[in-house]
Amino acid sequence: MLNNLFRGKIQEYVQKVQVFGDMRRAWSQHVWWTREVIIGIAQGLPSTTASVNKLLTNPATMMAVFEPYIGRASSAKLESLFTTHLSMGGDIVTASKAGDMTKAQELTKQWYANADDIAREFGKVGFNEEMVRQMMYSHLKMTLMEASLYLQGKYPESIVEFDKIQAEAEKMADYFSQGLTGLTI
After folding, report:
1. Domain count within the chain
2. Fewer CB within 10 Å, N side or C side of the chain?
3. pTM (2 decimals)?
4. Cβ partners under 8 Å of residue 17, min gap 6
């Protein structure tokens, strides 16, 4: 009986640790494919559509990690909000590349409003809404900087910014994993 209890605790711990890996993978793919889309739009690459299509699978991948902990309804709402988040980001880059800064600025305001919606939804399932908002705002600010640098042809600086985005994505992944599992790794 003690062996079964011990085995069950080990399985539970392993499953929780797996959440950290799955969450980091989802967030890493989120920022990686976002960069691929930025580059594709900026360069007019024929691979852009394929990159956008791959990026738009990310919300489902991410919410597959969340769903066992927050339920189907909340994960579906967040999946929709993150899909909008990704689409809006591409639209901002497209408007910026075209030189339509009025449209880019309006879309950016909407992007931040979407981040507020994401933070509110996470707040409803037990995460600190203000903490999520701050992380999302930082993520948006850095992604805008990355895209701006790339569109200006400042490729090395864009790479440096992406490295910061990648590090932040890992912190965001760990924050959410800790909140879901109660583990601190």
Report:
1. 1
2. N
3. 0.92
4. 183, 185
